[in-house]
Structures are given as structure tokens and as C-alpha cells.
Amino acid sequence: MRIFNPGPEYSQIISYLLTGKSAREIGRIMGYKSGGTVSKKIKRLINHGYLINHTGPDNRFYSITLKGYSIIGNKREDNSPTQSGKVEALTENSDKFYRLHALQIKYWLKTPLPAENIHIISFKDHPTHLRNLRNHSDLIVEFKDFNVTVSTRAIKFTNLEVRMPYKEVNDPQILLTKAMALIEPEVEHIESLLSKHIPGLKLQRLANNVLDAVVTRGEIAIENDELAINVGKIQKDTGEKLRIYDPDDGKISEIVDFSKGPAEFESVHPKKLIENLEIYKQFLDDLNSGKFYDRINKIVEVQEKTMQIQEKQEEIQKNAFSQFDERINEHLNLVNNLATQFFHALDELKNYMMR
Fold first, then answer.
1. Domain of life, per the record (predicted)?
2. Which of 1.10.3300.10, 1.10.10.10, 1.10.645.10, 3.40.309.10 is the CATH number of 1-79?
3. pLDDT for 69
4. First-to-last CA distance in the chain?
């Protein structure tokens, strides 16, 4: 197998990508006859772990790995997280982000390992950080302090964190899939390291060469969410905390949390992360589009019509009872008249018999 050693032109390509230029623009600047040449070089950088490709609904962007930083000689230490692992808070003008944190992902092994190979490995201050090439302050994936548990049938990664631009993920159903795709290159790197010390360790791959994995735990936050920020201000003023409980099992389902800086909406139910996120996202979309207020107006209209129907029913019942009372009185009068006539007839018969 040929070893790939990227030369200065690859460093230039990454540097231009950092400024948001397209492959066609880079090709023109560097004097290539077509943008296809640059696209091929970008593909090689992706295949060898220097870049990660992301395709959004409107465009495509790339994340640069630590390996990618090494060939441009710019680690951007000024943008690294603090020692506590916290990322600087976004400003009110920043775009919204999904932040998947406290993630636990289980990767299945191709073949079971002997029991003596069970390990728990803690990584502290791990140097891998993936950043958005368009904005270095946007930390995309953070492998800082996390644990790797090697069991007989799987490897479990615990305490991972991923951030993705809100506008790049229209459907929350694919959020976890995209997050796992971002994490996968680093997982494969750690697989390579572990396999040197644990014979036979190899992760299971599906037909499309994607790692066979499942998210077993985690929380999903929406950073810089306007509604959550306003609720957070109310929470600070009143001391009350918003907690929404699941109606089925009573567990906490959603919260508004400001422990990381600006308030965030968080979906925290262990079994309904995506379901609750979809409900909240739909609520936000309806709120911003005005559909929410249309629904409120429709509810008010239905309530008003219901009250009108109830009033009409009460009126009909009242009239019915009134008409029923009139008929009863007529029958009573008729009975009284008949009784009077009967008794008169009896008196006349009695008088006749006594003559």
C-alpha cells in the first residue's frame, strides 16, 4: 500500500477551505485547469483522515481533524477549550447548534473476546478536537475526558460530545446518525491503538462499511435557543426551574438549563431523546411561522362554538320542559273535568234510586 504524504499543495487547499472557498475557486487560484483536480485532492484528504466531509440541506462544509492541523502548522491553540473543558458561550447573533453530550455509544465487536481482555480505559485531555472550517470557534466534536470500556462483545465509549449547526439538520431523526458519522474516524483510530494490545479486537462493520453501533445514553441540547434563553431569564428571576415530566413513566423529559452559559433547551429522557426533540422543534417552527397562533385561534373558535351549542341545547331543553309542563297541565285539567262529571253522574244516579 502506498503511503500518503500530503505535500504543500494539500496544505494550501486546507487553508483555502478554512476561508470558505469552493473547490472550483481553489482550483482557479492555484492554477489548476479544473475544479475536479482539487475535488480529488480533497477526497484524498478525507480518506486519509485529514478532513471530514459534511453535506447539509443547502451546502457542504468540512471539519478539520488534529491530523489536518498538523500539515498546515496551525493548531489554533487560542481557540482550544479551557482546562475545564467548557466551550465559550455563543453570542446572541450566533447560529443555533445542537449539542449532543454525555453520549454513550456501544460498538459491537466482529468476534467475541476472551474474558481476560476486559478493560476500562480513561482518556484525559485527549487532544482530538474537530472544528468547523468556516468558523474555528465552532467546536464540532470533542474527545476530551472520556472512557472506553472493552467487554467480551462490544466496546463502549462514554462521555462524548458533538455539536452540529441547527440549520444543517432539518430532521431530528437523522441527528444521531450524523453525530455517529462525525465520531467514527476517531473511534476507528482508537480501535487501531487498542488492537495493538488486544489481539483479535476488531469492530463489526455493516454492508456499507459503517461501524455497527447504537447510542445507549445521552442528552441533546439546543444552544442559543431564543425561547430557552427567555425562559432561563425567568428561572433566574424567580428561582423556579422548568421541568417537564413524561406522562407515561414520570421521568424528567425536558429541561431548560443554563449551567453552561446561555440557557439551553435539553431533551433528557433516556428513551425519548429524538421524539421529544421533534415535538419541541415542531413547536418552535409553528411559533416562528405563526401556525401556533392560528391553532390557538382555532381552539378558541371551537370553544366558542361549543359554548354556543351548549347554550342552544339548554334553551331547547328548557323549551321542551316548558312544553311538557303545559301538556301535563292540560291532561290534569282533562282528568279533573272527567272526575267532576263522573261524580255528578253518580249523584244523579243516587238521587234517582232514592225516589
1. Archaea
2. 1.10.10.10
3. 63
4. 144
